[in-house]
Design the sequence.
């Protein structure tokens, strides 16, 4: 409770510092925020790899298979729910078209996005050497390597060599979590810096403008998913949403400011294990996977933004179009990189591929900072819910057995 009060106090203090408008203070806060983001990104890559490898190696592929089955089920259910909420809100709110002259003026405002075919995307996931995915921070490639090594270790017959390798990996993981705990101990300073950075941007008008109903649909959908839909999932499994959110609050706050679920992963795992009481084998397996495939906010953003862009391009939004893009948005979001602006560039690629007026994304860009923050917080909250529900289900099964 004391830590939560401290974090909230840092949040308020940071907002006040940002509103002061002192250039020297803003520069210092930007520096501190960047340092924290880089440090958490540094820890995220080894966290993902060691968590998956040690889970498979220690508990075997059969036990891990049960955990993965629950993770995948809850991921798909929550992601589809998020997309459905976005679709319903889009129909109810019915955003109108933008003036044609506005689109013409913003063609140059859209950043370039890499245009990859589906085959190229699959090939980019398959590593051709061991080192490259670590340097690039390619989460999907790292998961692929971790799965292969972990399953391989679980299939090796018991021997002194296997024992040495597994103990070494577990020792590295213990050292990593010691570093994470030390970094989290100083997190109030990071929260202060992140809050000051955002407050300064808002006061400067960077995110002050909006395009009305579209923003209402995107942010409204995220709020409904965060405070209503995900808590209902928890209640359905007999879990207290207030308790779970209270325990996972450090991770949700970290996600809000870093705009990266991958960078937030060390905090998410530490909060799940130390504060929520999730079994280590479940937390260290579920959360790295969820960071990659459980993208509630991204699915809703892709769906709503694609519908809005296509509508402005003259495509009628029929029930068939809604259903088609609901599935496209969900399966596109699965595997999207948990990094800042990942959903934005994914949507840009999809719209470029069908010849839609991507200039609209230039209008969205100035306010995407706020959208990205809310989406990432929702993604990490959803990851936390999936982890809590999986732990609850497997605990029940063990007790019944």
Sequence:
């Amino acid at each position: 409770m004391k830590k939560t009060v401290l974090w909230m106090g840092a949040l308020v203090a940071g907002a006040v510092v940002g509103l002061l408008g002192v250039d020297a203070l803003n520069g210092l806060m930007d520096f501190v925020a960047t340092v924290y983001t880089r440090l958490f990104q540094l820890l995220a890559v080894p966290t993902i790899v060691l968590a998956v490898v040690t889970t498979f190696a220690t508990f075997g592929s059969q036990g891990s298979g049960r955990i993965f089955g629950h993770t995948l089920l809850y991921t798909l259910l929550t992601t589809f729910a998020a997309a459905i909420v976005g679709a319903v809100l889009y129909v109810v709110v019915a955003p109108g078209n933008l003036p044609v002259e506005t689109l013409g003026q913003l063609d140059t405002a859209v950043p370039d996005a890499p245009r990859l075919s589906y085959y190229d995307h699959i090939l980019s996931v398959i590593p051709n050497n061991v080192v490259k995915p670590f340097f690039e921070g390619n989460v999907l490639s790292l998961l692929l390597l971790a799965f292969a090594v972990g399953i391989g270790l679980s299939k090796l017959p018991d021997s002194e060599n296997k024992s040495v390798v597994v103990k070494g990996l577990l020792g590295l993981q213990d050292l990593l979590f010691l570093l994470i705990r030390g970094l989290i101990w100083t997190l109030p300073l990071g929260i202060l810096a992140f809050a000051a950075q955002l407050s300064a941007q808002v006061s400067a008008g960077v995110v002050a403008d909006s395009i009305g109903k579209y923003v209402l649909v995107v942010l409204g959908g995220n709020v409904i998913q965060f405070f209503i839909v995900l808590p209902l999932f928890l209640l359905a499994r007999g879990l207290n949403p207030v308790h779970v959110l209270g325990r996972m609050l450090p991770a949700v706050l970290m996600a809000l400011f870093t705009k990266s679920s991958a960078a937030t992963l060390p905090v998410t795992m530490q909060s799940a294990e130390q504060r929520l009481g999730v079994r280590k084998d479940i937390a260290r397996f579920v959360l790295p996977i969820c960071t990659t495939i459980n993208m509630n906010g991204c699915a809703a953003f892709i769906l709503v933004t694609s519908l809005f862009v296509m509508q402005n391009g003259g495509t009628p939004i029929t029930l068939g179009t809604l259903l088609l893009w609901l599935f496209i948005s969900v399966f596109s979001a699965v595997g999207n990189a948990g990094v800042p602006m990942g959903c934005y560039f994914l949507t840009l690629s999809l719209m470029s591929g069908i010849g839609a007026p991507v200039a609209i994304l230039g209008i969205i860009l100035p306010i995407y900072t706020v959208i990205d923050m809310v989406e990432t917080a929702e993604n990490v909250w959803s990851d936390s819910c999936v982890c809590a529900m999986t732990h609850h289900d497997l605990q029940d099964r063990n007790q019944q057995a």
Summary: The mean pLDDT is 83. Residues 100 and 239 are 50 Å apart (CA to CA).
